[in-house]
Each structure stands twice: as C-alpha cells, then as structure tokens.
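Researcher: Structure prediction, please.
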Amino acid sequence: MVKFMKRLPAGTLLVPMLLSALLHTMWPELFNIGGITEDFLGPGSVNFIVGMLTFASGLIIDLKSLKTMLKRHGLLMLVKLALVVPISLLYVFFFGQAGVLGISAVAFIVAMVSMNPAMYISLVDDFGEEVDKAAFAFTGLFSIPVIPVLIYSFNGQGTVDWMPIISTIFPLILGIVLGNLDPGFRKLFGGTVTILLPMLGWSMGQSMNLVTAFQAGFSGIVLAILYYIFTSSLVIFDKRLLKNDGVAAMAMNSVAALSTSIPAVIALSIPELQQYVPSAVAQILMVNLISVFVTPAIIRKLANN
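Model: Predicted structure follows.
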C-alpha cells in the first residue's frame, strides 16, 4: 500500500482521503462515538493537522530566503487575487446571484478563489523545492471565507471578519521565529509533512460525501472546466514571466474540500443566498474531486519537461 501511494503524485494524501471519503459515504456515523477514536479518525483533527503543517512550513523559512519566497509565491498570490476578484464581480454583474448553467454566483466565487493547501503541500513535497513548502500557510488564506466575503462586500453585501487570517498566519510566524532562533527545531520537526499528510487526507475524507459530489453532475463539471481555464494564467505567469517550471503555480490550482463550508458562512450574513447553498456545496465538492486527479497529472507532466 505504501509503495503504491508513493508512486502516485500526492498519493500519500489522495489514497487515504479517497478511502476515507468512500467509507464516510457508506457509513457516515462510523467514528462518531466520541473520545479519542472520534478525535483521531473523524474530521475534527483537520484544523490541528493544518496548524501543525503551517507551523512546520514556518520552520523551513530562513529569513535570508524569505525575500526569494515572497518574490515568487507572493507574486503568484497577488496574480490570483487580481484575477479572481474582477472575474467574480463580472459574473455577478452579468448573471446575477442565480448565475448561468445552474452555477450560482456563490458557487462560482468560492470555487475561483479556492486553493487546496493539503494538495499544495503534498505536490510540492513530491515535485517542488524547499522554498515552495514555505508558502503553505499563504495558500491556506484562500480556503477560508475571508476573500469570498470581501468580494461580496464590494457589492455592499456582507461584512469581513479578519480573525481567520490572523488565526492562519500565527502558527507560521511562530515557526519562523523558532526556526531562526534555533535551527535545531527544523531537525526536530523535519519529518512533520511526511507523517501528517496521510492523516490529513484521512481527516479530510471524513467530511466528504461522494454521492453529494456526483449530484452536481453537469454543472459541477462545467465549473471545474471554468476553474482551470481561469486559473491556468498562474502557470503561464510563473513560466513566462518568473521563468520557473510552473510546478508550484500549478500546485495552487486545486479546490479545497474545506471550501464547501464557505457558501453557508456567506449565507449567514446574506440570507437571500441560502437557496443556492445546497447546489453550491455539491458543485464545489465535485470540483474538489476533479482537481485532486487533474492537478497532480498536470504537475507530473510539468515536472518531467
């Protein structure tokens, strides 16, 4: 099993995730027995694991290499923002909240904004460079509600809560401080990513219902196609202007399963969007499932060129 997982791009994350999702789809209450079992095998450990990975990515950052990391990954994040914000606003302007082809505005916005931190760290661990891992925490900023809510606030809807950004960045800062005060921390936590990726995959699978995803059908597939059409500009920017191989940029092009919770969060402050939440959740989950296969396949080709 381990050899099989290691042969697949991001396999140490994907195989446990898909097995867990299949089990959760067939028996969703299996591990809901409380105590250590539920904390360990249920979905509740995702935040802790992501926090540990964020902390570990901070340990990698040598202050001398911080400029290099920001020069590449910071620019990629800015390109992502410069792309998704106007596209999202134009989608609402032309198609309204109901959207087109069954894809509501909230589903479109959340999908376009999303990045999958787990997929990113797994792929750059296999194909990227050490500096790429340090950008893990920044990808996490695109899987929380802040940016989608910010987009809605531009239209006079919704209010922005900045606390999730602070919560995401704090473990990174702690890792940077400790890693630069004492490089011994880097050795102590050196195997963190390898150990935690299978656990993260399993925990993520425990919040994924495959039946719900496939209910999105045609509209979910269309949304996935739109996602890759628009986000491919990141890879073009990385290769043509930054003169890199495009691996790290492509690793950012995957939708997070966590993003399925964002439509409901947005609807809390904008109640008229509640009617679109069920279909948006199914469509975003479908894009997530498609991207966990498509993105690693593309990255393997990029890495081999």
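Model: The chain has 18 helices and no strands.
Researcher: Thanks, that helps.
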